[in-house]
Amino acid sequence: MFDVFFVQQLVNGLSIGLIYALMAIGFTLIFGVLNVVNFAHGEVYMIGAFAGLLAITQLAPPLFAVILVALAFGALAGFGLERIAFRPFRRFRDEASLKSKAIREATLLSSLAVSIIVRELAEKIFGSNMQSIPQEYLLLKPIEIGPLSFANGQFLIFGLSIVMLGGLQWLLKHTRVGLSIRAVANNPMGAAYVGINTERTIIATFVIGSTLGAIAGLIVGLYQGAIFPAMGFAPGVKAFVAMVMGGLSSIGGAVVCALILGMAEAITTSFFAQGWGDLVAYLFLVITLVFFPTGLFGGGRERV
Amino acid sequence: MSTSNLIEIKDLHVRMGEQTILNGVSLHVPSGGIVTVLGSNGVGKTTLMRAVSGVYRSTSGSIRFDGTEITNWPSHRIVAAGLAQAPEGRQIFSSMTIAENLRIGGVGLTPQEVAEEEEKQLQRFSILRDRYRQKAGTLSGGEQQMLCIARALMCRPKLLLMDEPSLGLAPKIVRQIFDLISLIRSEGHSVLLVEQNARAALRVADYAYVMDGGRIAIEGSSADLANDARVRAAYLGGHAA
Q1: Is A100 an 8 Å CB contact of chain B?
Q2: Relative to the CA of B241, which of A195, A268, A271, B11 has its CA 20 to 30 Å away?
Q3: How close, in Å, is residue B13 to chain A by CA atoms?
Q4: Is the ipTM of this complex over 0.95?
Q5: Structural domains present in chain B
Q6: Is A35 on the interface with B (CB under 8 A)?
Q7: Is B22 left (phi over 0), alpha (psi -120 to 50) or beta?
Q8: Average pLDDT over residues A107-117
């Protein structure tokens, strides 16, 4: 005999964990290549959701097209973000600036600034409340399997995440762009010597990471029925925790930790009140930092 | 000199902050030649190589490569123009496989050309074929140097810059590397070699420069320099008189 409610919570946790994973990958890719944290990643997630919502209310296209719109806006947001918040602080040609702490701190603040400005602008334009989403686009249609009941959004999350995670692995292993991203992350000096266009590789990293983030934002928005300007903050923090737990620059580590985080949250909320779920993430972060300072998967400094 | 110079560096200066590291270096490599730059630690040899590859910016002077002014081009354009480097410290991609390191070296080629060139390098360095799917970080120092050279040759360069390829390697491997340099020339690549192992470098090179204090102190054919009293003194670690 198994507890139906518990299994269902595990599945819920898994789907949320996958969303954290998609976001954590964006953090991890950018950290791997530039050694900096992108604090505007949560806003990219929000932009994905809003771009999709606008497409829905203006054109009412099929869901597939809505996802493509979020993808396009995510890519655009990543490109713009790199231009505005990161490139001005980077002179990539010598070792000194590559390792410079000042540059790391400058981009940390500039990305935070962009994050605040974008969120405030969105609140100015759309108001800070949750947007109303047309009923037919909500991903909450129940699907019964035996005694278990799932939402169709969960299947979409599973399917899309697996496609995107698999696609990303393929991209990183078998395409020129992917190999360049890994090369720059592994050894930026070596990348310059073999003739990799570092600037273009950095832009590609932002575009890919932001695309994943934007799609995650859209799906979660439709699945939870909650699209609002500050929606990127909480999952951004969770994904950040997953990245730190995973060892900062290990994609596999970040994905595993994101899944652990999502499930732990779901299990917590099934035993305690809703608000306790968030506490789990912070608890994990503190435990990781105190007992595993290099992350659970970061021991060998394996990158991307 | 004649117009058959593959690369011509004129009065190159590199300053880093307050420090002037290159103070007017001029040298050239003829097509099909092996030229070596000698000198003790800290005289600016590696800085020169980095400036030529576009990893450092020069503050003044000019670099002409294959008839084109390439001064301060970004490094990826310089590599695309046919100037590759096997850099100091090898700078291989340790967390990527041998196969991936080689493919990255051919980043500007078509997949067909990459496959051809890779086959050529694997034939030359059979150890790389044996460990094709392993991470480059697991290779020994000599093997990493082979990978570094193979990776640089992947882009079919006209000129190969080599910065201290023998550094820290066992004498047997060092001999292999110097044999390889002659072989590379016979395949139609020109070579600019920076070395501390002056004896071996002079044996393989046609022409040599000795650097001191950020400029060229002595130059001449390898045979002449091998008999030069000042160079002989410098071999033993002293300064040129």
Answers
A1: no
A2: B11
A3: 16
A4: no
A5: 5-235 (3.40.50.300)
A6: no
A7: beta
A8: 93
What residue in A sits closest to B161 (Cα-Cα)? A193
Considering only the beta carbons, identify the residue of A179, A186, A195 that sits closest to B95: A186
Q: Per the CB < 8 Å rule, is A194 touching B79? A: yes
Ramachandran sector of residue A298 (left: φ over 0; alpha: ψ -120 to 50; beta: rest): alpha
Which sequence spans correspond to the domains of chain A?
Answer: 4-291
Out of A144-148, A286-290, B22-26, give the one with best mean pLDDT. Answer: B22-26
Give the pTM: 0.90
Give chain B's radius of gyration (CA, Å): 17
Per-residue model confidence as pLDDT tens digits over B121-136: 999 999 999 999 999 9
Q: Is the pLDDT of residue A16 over 60?
A: yes
Q: How confident is the model at residue A2 (pLDDT cuts 50, 70, 90)?
A: low
Q: Is A303 on the interface with B (CB under 8 A)?
A: yes
- Cα-Cα-Cα-Cα torsion B81, B87, B93, B97, nearest 10 degrees, comes to 80
The arithmetic mean of pLDDT across residues A77-82, rounded, is: 96
How far, CA to CA in Å, does A299 sit from each of A163, A245, A250, A296, B239? 29, 11, 10, 7, 46
